[in-house]
């Protein structure tokens, strides 16, 4: 029995394979319906010129009703982006990954949102509470209750 | 719900935003007119109470099935059979696919119709599979085996021939059972053992025994006897069934009778008298015999004559004093009220008697002031009594009504009279007060004159008898 989440993900995968990804985003790994990886590049003028990041999606059986667990990961030659909303362990404080997730959103929509989040950054720094958070952070960023206080970036 | 592969590209308007597939049971929100699959949106609402598309507040109550156009558009989409990966190339409208699966898809797995077989088989293989269940005989030992077990049986087969344990002749396995019926050496009982013959011996000796068997000689008698006993047993069974049925009926009738007794209450005995021609068996638990009933009938007749029924005593409530004010306008009407139905029995005379006594009592009202409620007349039928009671209620309500009106008028009159009296008393009082005033003025004038006359001395107490008396504690004015 194919679950609803794998039906939906196979549909999304087919769309990516047929239509391709938006500029700067590339599917790197989608061997199963549990974990996908994308490479992310910020195009045009930005603080992240010539940097490439790896974005990891983890899905549970409730996807797309429940949001995917999204975070940056460190892979060979790629670092976690330095950004006021990205912790050094790769966790991202973005409302669409938390309480503003909607089942009509998709993997590509999340990629594009995070791409523009990086593109609009004015100052490369870690979140204020980075050290404290990273020390106690759970493995799954979905288990964190973020405070989405800053709407500017 | 099964997930389908759609043959043609589907219009994007028919695709659910949550599962990205054409709607299944489409439901539309009443608040923002967005459409989703029923299952998708209900699952989403379990997590967040808002529309996934525009985030407006949304509850399950705001959902209703989508319009018939959307529903038929998605229902009529062509889909592949869900068993395509197994080999079924069938395609049809989505709404017809469940029927294809449950009735005709050759690649749908169905349980083997055989109760003992737990296998799941393709529908197309059902006939072939059923054949494999058909039993066949081993040609060596004659045992029942299934074709699927043939190979396994080959090693266990006990061989083609066997020896009869009684006559020691060699025979095939398959023949063993039929041989035992005819084997001459096997020990058998006499054919009349049911009737009591105790003989036992080899089958070959049976015919010799039969010539001397006493039971064989009277076998004809046994046959006739047996037939008669069978006939009697059959009859007995039929009778037993009928008795059972009748007993059940009797129990039912008893219950109904009990219920009727309770419902009838005190009228129960009377209804017996109503049908004196009904001759009941004496052992039945009825305490009234038809002969004694007639005497009690007469007794109750007399009683009715003495005690007027309800309606007759109603007018006695009118007070005597007011009688002259009001003519008896409604009393003459009462006898014209419909009399209780004339029941075709003796009771008709009693009931009419009761109503006559009622008219007569118009004159004798005063005597019955304290005997307002007459006892129920048990000698009439239940219907008659009910009708009479109804009439009594009608009469009482009429009387009560007129009584109320009379009381109203009397009260008004009385109030008027009392008011007049009070007015005249007030006038008298006023006159008295004026007189007292005049007297007091007169006396004051006299006292003043007397004081002026004796300026030099202390006023003696006895000179003011009026003032002392009016202020003293023992005043008697
Ligand atoms: Zn909506
Ligand atoms: Zn859906
Ligand atoms: Zn099929
Ligand atoms: Zn079977
Ligand atoms: Zn055999
Ligand atoms: Zn034998
Ligand atoms: Zn015998």
General description of the model:
The complex is a heterodimer of chains A (153) and B (477). Chain A has 3 helices and 4 strands; from the N terminus they run H-E-E-E-E-H-H. Chain A is of the alpha+beta class and 153 residues long. Chain A has a 4-stranded antiparallel beta sheet with strand order 1-2-3-4, with helices on one face. The termini of chain A are far apart. Chain B is mainly α and 477 residues long. Chain B is flat. The structure holds zinc ion (ZN) (7 copies).
What is the CATH topology classification name of the domain at 12-107 in chain B?
Herpes Virus-1
Number of strands of chain A: 4
Largest sheet of chain B: 3 strands, antiparallel
**Overall residue-averaged pLDDT value of chain A:** 88
Please state the CA-atom Rg of chain B, rounded to the nearest Å.
Answer: 57 Å
Strand order of the largest sheet of chain A: 1-2-3-4
Largest inter-chain contact set: A-B, 14 and 15 residues
Described by its quaternary structure, the protein is heterodimer
Protein name (chain A): UBC core domain-containing protein
Keywords (chain A): Ubl conjugation pathway
Pfam families (chain A): UQ_con
Domain UBC core (chain A): 4-153
Features:
heterodimer; A: 153 residues; alpha+beta; Ubiquitin Conjugating Enzyme; four-stranded antiparallel β-sheet; 4 strands; B: 477 residues; mainly alpha; Herpes Virus-1; three-stranded antiparallel β-sheet; two-stranded antiparallel ribbon
Précis, in short:
Chain A has 153 residues and is an alpha+beta fold. Chain A is built from three helices and four strands; from the N terminus they run H-E-E-E-E-H-H. In chain A, 24% of the residues lie in helices and 16% in strands.
List the helices and strands and how they pair.
The complex is a heterodimer of chains A (153) and B (477).
Chain A: H1 4-19, E1 25-29, E2 35-41, E3 52-58, E4 69-73, H2 107-119, H3 130-136
Antiparallel strand pairs in A: 1-2, 2-3, 3-4
Chain B: E1 26-29, E2 35-37, H1 38-47, E3 63-65, H2 68-75, E4 78-80, E5 91-93, H3 97-104, E6 109-111, E7 120-122, H4 126-133, E8 135-137, E9 144-146, H5 150-156, E10 161-163, E11 170-172, H6 176-182, E12 187-189, E13 200-202, H7 206-212, H8 214-217, H9 219-264, H10 268-274, H11 290-306, H12 347-360, H13 382-453, H14 465-471
Antiparallel strand pairs in B: 1-2, 1-3, 4-5, 6-7, 8-9, 10-11, 12-13
The complex binds zinc ion (7 copies).
